[in-house]
Amino acid sequence: MELAIGIILGCCALGAGLAMIAGIGPGIGEGNAVAKACEAIGRQPESKGAVTTTMLMGCAVAETTGLYALVIAILLIFVAPNLLVNLLVRTIQAL
Amino acid sequence: MRKNSLKFRIIDIFYIVMMIFPLVFGIVVNVLTEPQTEGITITGARIFFTIPMPIQDFPITESQLNSALVMVTLFFLCLFLTHGLKEHIELKRQHLAEMIVEKVDALVAENMGEHFKGYSAFIIAILALSGFSSLMSLLGLFPPTSDLNIVGGWAILVFILITYYKMKCGFLNYLKGFTQPVALLAPINFISEFATPISMAFRHYGNVLSGSVISVLLGTALAGLSSMVLGALPGFLADIPLFQMGIPAVLSIYFDVFSGCLQAFIFAMLTMLNVSGGFDIETYEKRKAKKLAKKIKN
Fold this sequence. Notes:
The structure holds two protein chains of two kinds. Chain A is mostly helical. Chain A is built from five helices and no strands. The termini of chain B are far apart. Chain B has nine helices and two strands, in the order αββαααααααα. Helices cover 68% and strands 3% of the residues of chain B. The longest helix of chain B is centred in the last third of the chain and has 45 residues. Chain B has one domain. By secondary structure, chain B is mainly alpha-helical. At the A-B interface, helix 3 and helix 4 of A face helix 7 and helix 8 of B.
């Protein structure tokens, strides 16, 4: 019983950590976007306002995949262990 | 400048009090119902009580209460800003109100086009509700936008709007849109239709929630750090929160103020782009002309 609960908790933590690997993608993407925006402002300083607004929009959209991973990780840490342990206890009692 | 009458001032004071009262009420409820805990606590919205319903119990949570409080505050803020509107501007607040209306009108006209002129009221409502909800965390309250249920409701509303404007060119045209560019892609188009509201809701809620999670983690880490550095000192010196002073405030400016306002802006922006993007104005005009010609013929 204790071993099973330990495995559940450990695997949830591992899964949350693995899910956050997805943070690499938005990091690279947003870095690219900001670099290009800096170049654009350097070339045409008068268009700074429009470029900044568009860049922030693009960054927010690129962030979405990272946030999906974050939501999964938060669910795995705070919600899943409770549910799974309850399920395990109920199954053992039913047996 | 005309001296304000007594009645005008009394109404003014009433509006200001009603603007501040919900926030004070929220803080009082928060203090009264907050459970005593130690260490890291990251929980969802607290459930105050549940109303029994036939299919499923209906819980009244902190996020529902706080969003209702935000609505009351915004309602009286609007009344306050528009109180005493005159053709010749007498009050300073009228400049502010006119500035807000003009800015939002310009934004909507730029992003949505002429046909959606009346949408500026809806857009400013979403913008203000979302922005003020995120700013609730500055008062130590639970920000309603870090609850998926609240943001999901807004996203469903936007989804209904998008579908309505897509169906405005005829239901068959709407179904035909799924088979573009190839009929084989219909299932994928169908999934991507539902991905829009889900991604909008998750984006907003994930950003606000991650901010509060990081704030809690950092606060705990700083407390541990200062007790490690000063813990060896005798007496009250050991309890000085050396690192908790100042550093969380800097992060709060990013996570609470900047991120909250930015997410509100992005939600409103995506609403505008999706709603106006789903509406094919050329087909609509053509159909309208055709219908009119038919009517005249008859």
